[in-house]
Amino acid sequence: MMRPAELLIIENAKECPDFRYYLPLMKKAERNVTSHPDICIETCKALVEGVSKTIILSLEEGVRPEDIKDLDVSPLVKRAGKLLQQDDTIIEEGFVTRVASVAHFIGVLRNERGDISHGKAVPKVIQSNDKLANAILQVSSGLLIYMLDTYFTKLKDKRARAAQAELQKEQAADLEQVPYDDNQDFNSWLDESYPYDGKLSYSFALFSLYYEDYLVRLEEFRDIAEEEDE
Q: Taking the CB of the first residue and of the last residue of the chain, which one, N or C, has fewer CB atoms within 10 A?
């Protein structure tokens, strides 16, 4: 049941290798559905809580681990969900609220019946059955799929925008590396080919007002010159 969430982590392991930390926990949750239902539920809670913390620390500026370490799972999920929202519509807001409610229920179950973080005396008075554990596993898996997929998509978009900005910066720098006076032969050819009535020569007017067009024409001029030399 956790397989789709596992695949998301595996597919994005190159860009986000730290998320592989959650893979053994996903296996543990599945492995204990029948034999130890409360361990399964507790592991599901840990997964949802951990992924939520990671999303908050990654997407919310200025947040430190110590700022969120004592928060319960429900506010963590709601906070992470708001960061993952695609827009501010009522539908998405309502979805985040309901997801947080589900996380709260999982957290309550874990606190009441968890076998690991809250050790229990034997005989254990209240135990969850495998049907409940299976339901929690399915809900947690669906929630993790949504959170992971949306997070990885946001991260890719963010990196793509950063790469585009860097490319534009480099292109702008390239545009500044061609001084007008370094291409007198080209400038003369332009001025002879396009007589310009005015105080400015055609080449300088093109260079000053339409610099990218100037570069395109310069590149064409150089290509023709190279072909003639051959």
A: C
Is there a contact between 120 and 160 (Cβ–Cβ < 8 Å)?
no
Task: Please say whether the dihedral angle defined by the alpha carbons of residues 206, 208, 209 and 213, taken in this order, is positive or negative.
Answer: positive
Output the pTM of the full model: 0.71
- Under the phi-then-psi rule, with left for phi > 0, alpha for psi from -120 to 50, and beta for the rest, what region is 101? alpha
* pLDDT tens column, 156-167: 988 888 888 887
Tokens of 140: 């947690």
Q: In whole numbers, what is the pLDDT of the chain averaged over residues?
A: 87
Residue 133 to residue 119: CA distance in whole angstroms: 18
Whether 47 is covered by a domain: the verdict is yes
What's the number of domains the chain is made of? 2
Q: Please choose, from the candidates 69, 97, 66, 67, the residue with its C-alpha nearest in 3D space to the C-alpha of residue 81.
A: 97
The H-assigned helical ranges of 176-210 are 184-193, 202-209
Domain boundary among 114, 140, 166: 166
Query: Is the separation of the CB atoms in 5 and 11 below 8 Å?
Result: no
Task: Clarify whether residues 8 and 69 are in a common domain.
Answer: yes
